């Protein structure tokens, strides 16, 4: 297994073989998770702390389940309610954490770069569960596993990422990962939701769903991140749905066997039609959730191996 990293802070530092190492190990955990006894011991004796400075349902639950299935002691710290509000600095948080001797720290933070900063201050393996608009590496990895299982490969695919690209760490991590695995990424969305200079990442940019979806293998929809908008990005939700919402007609431009993805949480009737989201012949949205647990088990397992090796000297 080729995974020479102390932390999982983003897709950016990962080589293709590191990505493949996580996905291959995650396959084993998919099998374990489908069995009656969902227990491994890769994290036995280790303490995992989940610190979510921003709301999360599926990512936090997924990391918690992943840690428990591998035998870690898992603690969730309710960060939104406590320290951030009281103005504790990230450095103080790190010192507090060090005193508790965690082995794995899972962090979500509203500011880009905050998780990297914390990783420099704590003495454990850190996993980024989403920092601002920067990265969300386990989401891109679970998306990759879902695509690989549905399409049999990760290279030479045409993948459209649609909607609110500007505010999306999911888009950023996916652009990096899919490019590294030699697939072609198209971004589709209104110019107001497209980050300036994004073409430098080697992607094609479209503002029209018909042209952008033409012949793609994968359609990845993104949530309109209203909490990161301060007005004026879209004329109205109705107009947005009309132009960019995925419905049966627009999906018809993609390949007949194209899969539909969404990281959740979904705004049904805004970026995606509810019937498409629920169509088990096209939508792999539930598979994404399942792959999420397996990918997080694999990532924590690999980081724990490195941690133990470093500590053994
Ligand atoms: C994403 C996130 O938090 O970045 N959600 C998730 O992790 N499943 C995307 C989103 O919030 O729209």
TrEMBL record:
Residues 7-148 form the Aspartate/ornithine carbamoyltransferase carbamoyl-P binding domain. One of its GO terms (cellular component) is cytosol. Belongs to the aspartate/ornithine carbamoyltransferase superfamily. ATCase family. GO terms for molecular function: amino acid binding; aspartate carbamoyltransferase activity. This is Aspartate carbamoyltransferase. It comes from Roseovarius azorensis. GO terms for biological process: 'de novo' pyrimidine nucleobase biosynthetic process; 'de novo' UMP biosynthetic process; amino acid metabolic process. Carbamoyl phosphate binds at residues 58-59, 108, 136, 139, 264-265. Heterododecamer (2C3:3R2) of six catalytic PyrB chains organized as two trimers (C3), and six regulatory PyrI chains organized as three dimers (R2). Keywords: Pyrimidine biosynthesis, Transferase. It catalyses: carbamoyl phosphate + L-aspartate = N-carbamoyl-L-aspartate + phosphate + H(+). Its EC number is 2.1.3.2. The gene is pyrB. Coiled coil: none annotated. Reversibly catalyzes the transfer of the carbamoyl group from carbamoyl phosphate (CP) to the N(epsilon) atom of ornithine (ORN) to produce L-citrulline. Pathway: Pyrimidine metabolism; UMP biosynthesis via de novo pathway; (S)-dihydroorotate from bicarbonate: step 2/3. Residues 157-302 form the Aspartate/ornithine carbamoyltransferase Asp/Orn-binding domain. L-aspartate binds at residues 86, 169, 223.
């Amino acid at each position: 297994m080729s995974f020479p990293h102390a932390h999982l802070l983003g897709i950016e530092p990962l080589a293709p073989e590191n990505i493949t190492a996580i996905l291959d190990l995650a396959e084993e955990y998919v099998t374990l998770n489908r069995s009656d006894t969902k227990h491994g011991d890769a994290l036995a004796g280790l303490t995992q702390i989940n610190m979510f400075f921003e709301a999360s349902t599926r990512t936090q639950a997924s990391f918690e389940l992943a840690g428990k299935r591998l035998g870690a002691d898992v603690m969730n710290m309710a960060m939104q309610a406590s320290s951030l509000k009281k103005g504790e600095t990230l450095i103080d948080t790190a010192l507090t954490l060090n005193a508790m001797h965690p082995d794995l720290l899972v962090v979500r933070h509203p500011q880009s770069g905050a998780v990297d900063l914390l990783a420099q201050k704590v003495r454990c393996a850190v996993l980024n569960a989403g920092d601002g608009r920067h990265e969300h590496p386990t989401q891109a990895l679970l998306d990759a596993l879902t695509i690989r299982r549905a399409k049999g490969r990760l290279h030479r695919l045409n993948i459209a990422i649609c909607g609110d690209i500007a505010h999306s760490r999911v888009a950023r991590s996916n652009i990096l990962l899919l490019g590294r695995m030699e697939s072609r990424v198209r971004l589709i969305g209104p110019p107001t939701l497209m980050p300036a200079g994004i073409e430098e990442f080697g992607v094609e940019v479209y503002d029209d769903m018909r042209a952008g979806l033409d012949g793609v293998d994968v359609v990845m929809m993104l949530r309109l991140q209203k909490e990161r908008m301060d007005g004026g990005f879209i004329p109205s939700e109705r107009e947005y749905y009309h132009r960019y919402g995925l419905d049966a007609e627009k999906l018809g431009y993609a390949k007949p066997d194209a899969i539909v993805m969404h990281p959740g949480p979904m705004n049904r009737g805004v970026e995606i039609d509810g019937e498409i989201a629920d169509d088990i012949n096209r939508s792999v949205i539930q598979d994404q959730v399942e792959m999420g647990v397996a990918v997080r088990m694999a990532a924590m397992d690999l980081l724990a191996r490195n941690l133990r090796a470093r500590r053994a000297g």
